[in-house]
Amino acid sequence: MTAARIGWALLAAIAAFGILGPLLAGDPLRQDLSATLQGPGAVHPLGTDQFGRDMLARLTHATRLSLGFAAVAAVAAAVPGIALGLIAAWRGGIVERALVSLADAVMALPGLLLVVLFAAFAPGEFLPLYLGLSLALWVEYFRLTRGVAASLLARPAVEAARLFGFGPWHVLRHHLLPELAPMLVTLLAFSAAAAVTAISALAFVGIGLRPPTPEWGSMMTELLPYHAEAPLQVLLPGLLLALTVLGLQLVAGARR
Amino acid sequence: MGGLTRALAARAVQALLVALVVGIACFAMVRLLPGDMAFRIAAGRYGIDLVSGAAADAVRVELGLDRPWWQQLGAWLGGLIRFDLGVSLVSGDPVVDELKTYLGHTILLAVVALGISVLVGPPLGAWLGARAGSAADRAGLVASAVLRALPAFVVGIGLILVFAVGLGWLPAAGVGGWQEVVLPAVTLALGLAAVSSRVARDAVAAALHAEPAEFARRKGLPEGAVRRRHVWRNAAVPVVAYLGVQLVALIEGVVIVETLFAWPGIGHALVHAVVARDVPMVQGTALVMGLLFVALNALVDLLTLLIDPRRRSAA
Amino acid sequence: MSDLVLDGVTVDGPQGRIVHPTSLTLRPGVPLALLGETGSGKSLLMQAVMGTLPPRLSAGGSVRLDGTDLLRLDAAARRALWGRRIAMLPQEPWAALDPLMRAEAQVAEVPRFLNRAPWAEARRRAGEALAALGLARGERRYPFQLSGGMCQRVALAATRVAGAGVLLADEPTKGLDTALRDGVTALLRAEAEAGRILLAITHDVAVARGLGGEVGVMLEGEVVESGPAAAVLAAPRHAYTRRLLAAEPAAWAPWPRAETGGVLVEGRGLAKRFGAQRLFEGVDVALRAGGRVALFGPSGSGKSTLGNLLLGLLRPDAGEVRRAPGLVAPFVQKLYQDPVAAFAPRRTVGQAIEAVVARHRLDARATTRWMEALRLSPGLLARRPDEVSGGELQRFALLRAMLPGPRVLFADEPTSRLDPVTQQEVMDRLRDALAASGAALLLVTHDRDIAGKAAKDVLALGG
């Protein structure tokens, strides 16, 4: 209970930073070559990077980007995954077998490899990252929903509901969703964490989003050569990323 | 051995699916990427200065780029199955030859990382599981949660800054002696051990008070024999099963960590090929990476069959 | 061989005394069966004797064996007696045996570690112990390859191979059908006849009768009556013992004959397979309006499957089922073995019943009427299914099934998970509900006596 609360508090603080920060901080792209790699000070609370750009402005924009990306990618994976999982469990037969085969094909490769293949179409752009991540992540929702729904549908309670003349909506509302919802919330947090990590990792190795877009992973790549002069600047994006993932994991329940 | 045949057949299907997914993606890449594919392949083969329209046409006919798309896809996948992976657009060398050197490095890194994580994670977890609820157990929980929240490249940068830059004990990049493999392997192993120690901890804590262990105690067995014969073995079943799940993280980590440490393996090559849009190399590296994933999974399957007689039955 | 003497044994928990001072003497060769319902404290009494009480509970009084008071010994000294002097059969052997170890090894490790026998010698003794129980060919198998009865024998062999003279058995027949139950009872009786002290806990009077020897009846933490089984079971003095005996299906009054009408459901030449296994074939059965048919057989005989075929919930592999026109949901209703699984877990019992009333636009007063007839308290409506006792929930399930006015009620082992007194209560209410509504009953049961009392037509399957 307390772990989940710490997680929510962390996420709330990071979200506030990402949503309110861009409104207050300055332009994340404005260079000032006369003030590069400065330490924290009155003008630049978190210092500047190698082009003299304000670190606070860049970090808060990067946070907004990552959180928005994770939310959209997780939801874009959840909606088709849950829907297809329910359809597979409900219909069974050839529909289920076809969907399971499709899921197996996606699962054959580790998810990040799939995203890399998509990123190769148009390195540095958003759309392939979204598509690749959603394609890799929907399978988790599909498998969970199908597995849980199938076992719930086999329960005597569902057979009884049918004998009382209740239709699919009643079964969905009273027998499936109440049991599925907590598991799906957990999965939502896990897949958001996976999305946040993936986008930063890909940007870090240079095949995701590219500079000058403020993004945690690419900021670390850019600043790494200056670790001696500006250790704080290298550290901060990684710290924000780790806190976000930690918050999501704590919310998900520290298990798995 | 019905279980063995079934497991291997499932992995063979997975290997085919890997080839299919990678092949179709790379075929689509060739068709959708801007620029004339035949021209780029000819340039890769003969050098950018010597390439001419005639050479490009020759390549076009040779590769069948003038045929309908579905015939091309069939030919493309056919080549993939025969492991005819073409020529790198960057170096001009056959992709297969390049992959051979990369693969050795990747396997070395993956095996060392997996080895360290297996030697650290499960034993530590078992030790904590036998002390579930103690201060050490709670500290382990916090440490594992923090470590799991740190992505591999952040851990890697931290290790480089401390052990390579700060202390100067180990090299930060490259390949050569045993020193170079330590930091990338430890980076990967830390993430894996953070999870496997938790799985082992939960499995041991459960197995210690599960019915088979309680029954063994009531039979009169001394506690040492109860642990050795009934607790560790039963706890190993979920730990090994979870090893299969962790292989996803291992392969994904290899791509990132190899790039960070300039480790000349498949993942490093994949990233470079994507940046250079060298489609034959993208295809070759992704394929080999996927097949390595399948092979490691098959090994985990065998381990599971070895431990658990229920999996060996044909039913 | 000394007696095992319990003198004023108590068990106390954080909420107070659970087992009141209990004195019993167990003699070699004379089995003692402790009879009582769930929560009567009989399991805790046995755990106090064995030394396996949960940490929050504590035992008082004395348990004397070989001149020592076991309750004065420390945990290590008590554990040293396990297997060698005092042994306990696991409640559900199929869950207690190690799934990863062959049957022989699970027996052989006992002489290996308790008597320091070399492995070859230990295996030889394990083989003998298993062969003595008729399991000579099961020794190389893993538990998942053994039937429930075989698991029971392997566990017994492992429990007694080190020569313990005191055998404790906690609900040894839990989850077994009648035939297996009688087999285990005979096995335990043979243990006592070989000169061991045997204490068995059961809620099944038939087990106590089958063991012979002595019997003690426990109610709310007290032994209310004890003595030779033959005397106590033939002439019970305490009211609770009489109720327990009256609750035995064999002692029930047969249900009154019902007026029957035309055929509602008829199956001819029915056959069904489950994978490679043939459940049944060539079965003919007919249920008339207001009639009662019982399908009886051991577990795995396909009796529930046959019921589902007749209701149209499954299709037969061969043969045909004919149902009277209009015999569809909701005029066909079903009761399940596990009533908790028959309700949506997160809604209250009242919500589940209201949903049926609303769906079929029924008169809300019908619910109240049925509540009274089934002796259900309105306060229970606000609880969730897992917060209501099994007997009450099964009666709620019966109430819900009766609301739409069914013409056929399929009761699939409706009382097999209930204590005997509760079982009788539920079956009596079922009888009254059928009489009031005129619905026909299709009853599936593994108990021959219940089948015979409830129905005139009994169809035996398998076995």
Average pLDDT for all residues of chain C: 88
Helix run count of chain A: 9
> Describe the biggest sheet of chain C?
6 strands, mixed
Mean pLDDT score of chain A, rounded? 86
| Largest interface (C-beta under 8 Å) | A-B, 40 and 48 residues
Describe this structure in words.
Chain A is mainly alpha-helical and 256 residues long. Chain A has one domain: MetI-like (MetI-like fold, Orthogonal Bundle), CATH 1.10.3720. Chain A has helices at 2-24, 55-91, 93-107, 111-119, 126-153, 156-163, 168-205, 216-223, 231-252. In chain A, helix 2 packs parallel to helix 9. Chain C is built from 16 helices and 18 strands. In chain C, the strands form 4 sheets. Chain C has a 6-stranded mixed β-sheet, sandwiched between helices. A 5-stranded parallel β-sheet of chain C has the order 15-16-17-13-18, sandwiched between helices. A 4-stranded antiparallel β-sheet of chain C has the order 2-1-4-5, covered by helices on one side. With 463 residues, chain C is α/β, with parallel strands linked by helices. Chain C folds into 2 domains: 4-246, P-loop containing nucleotide triphosphate hydrolases (Rossmann fold), CATH 3.40.50; 251-460, P-loop containing nucleotide triphosphate hydrolases (Rossmann fold, 3-Layer(aba) Sandwich). Chain C has helices spanning 42-50, 75-81, 93-96, 103-114, 119-132, 148-160, 178-193, 205-211, 229-234, 239-246, 303-311, 349-359, 364-373, 390-402, 420-437, 448-454; strands at 4-13, 16-26, 32-35, 58-65, 68-69, 86-89, 166-170, 197-202, 214-219, 222-228, 263-274, 277-288, 292-296, 318-323, 332-335, 408-412, 440-445, 457-460.
